[in-house]
Amino acid sequence: MRSSILRRYRNTVWILSILLLLAICFSVFLGISYSRQQTEIQQLQNRLTEMQIDLCELQDALNLSKNDRALQQEKFESVQSSYEQLQKSYDSLLSSGVENYKELESEYQNLQTEYDILLHRYQEYKNTVKVAYLTFDDGVSVNTNKILNILDEYEIHATFFANWQSWGQKWYSEIVNRGHTLGNHCASHDWEDIYSSPEAFLQQVTLYQENVKKATGGYIPQIFRFPGGSNNTIHKNYNPNVMPAAIQSIRELGLTYFDWNVDSGDAERNHVPAETLISNVLTSAKNKKSIIVLMHDTGAKDTTVEALPFIIEGLRDQGYIFSVLTQYTEPIQFRKQ
Ligand SMILES: [Zn+2]
Q: 9-56, pLDDT tens digit by residue?
């Protein structure tokens, strides 16, 4: 009697142990296949992110084109919309499980092929085009609207590396809404505020980001220009060691900084004759393929406004088309660290 109870007890223990072992094996199996799926999803996500960056670059690039635009734009839009659909299926896949992963993967391959062809055609086109990026520093000012109106008249876009002027809040939205890039040039332009320490510098950069975000209802600048340029010597009067840390914090904030390769000369002094500014730009633009033109948007730079239509026309005559700087544009940087 006793031994039969003991036997039954042993059998139960055996069965339970086997069941437990099976359960463990099953969980390990589930765990492995789950983590493999997760890795695959992660890889797909990385490729989609890369592709999103490529597409932004391509869109930016295609916006440069005037003559070939109709042809390329149509093709581009079809790839863009397939891409957006793919992104949507990917998102829903993530929330609903991963059964359709293989299908999505093959859709992605097709899109990638189409995209590569488009990119190749674009690169061939790009080799033949000259691009001018007009940039206006130190705004906003009483001249901002005049500059915007001239740009509208010529149906071109430019880049504004502004400071923060609380009186002129509406102009930040105006710049963005009229299709231009709004960059960061620190909240203040006071050298001591900016370059006295890495902390003071960072504070000026982030204060501008926050204020612009509020004033524009959510626009976050992605590009930056150092007051005085990245190779300025002015910082040495306040803190000779500030630049490496300042450059580092710009990178950490995810901002791309831009200097220039054509200087209008309007910062030399106020009221430099318009003819001088025009000649500075047009002479310096000769024999270049891509130019970033330094100009200023302040109340005292009235001759910059006066010169602007002639600068635009002169550059057009030299074969330039106009575009905006973005985080995807190849930067010009005087100082790298
Ligand atoms: Zn400046």
A: 778 878 888 888 888 877 777 777 777 767 766 776 676 666 666 666
Q: Rounded to the nearest whole angstrom, what is the distance from the C-alpha of residue 185 to the centroid of ligand 1? A: 7
* Ligand 1 mean position, distance from CA 97 (Å): 52
For residue 227, how far is its CA from the centre of ligand 1 (angstroms)?
4
> By the 8 A CB rule, do 25 and 92 touch?
no
Three-state DSSP class for 167? helix
Q: What is the pTM of this model?
A: 0.71
Per-residue pLDDT band for 163 (boundaries 50, 70, 90) equals: very high
Residues 13, 9: Cα–Cα separation, whole Å = 6
Question: Topology of domain 130-322, per CATH?
Answer: TIM Barrel (3.20.20)
Residue 196: partners with Cβ closer than 8 Å, 6 or more residues away: 238, 239, 242
Ligand 1: centre distance to CA 211 (Å): 18
Sequence spans of domains, the chain: 2-126, 130-322
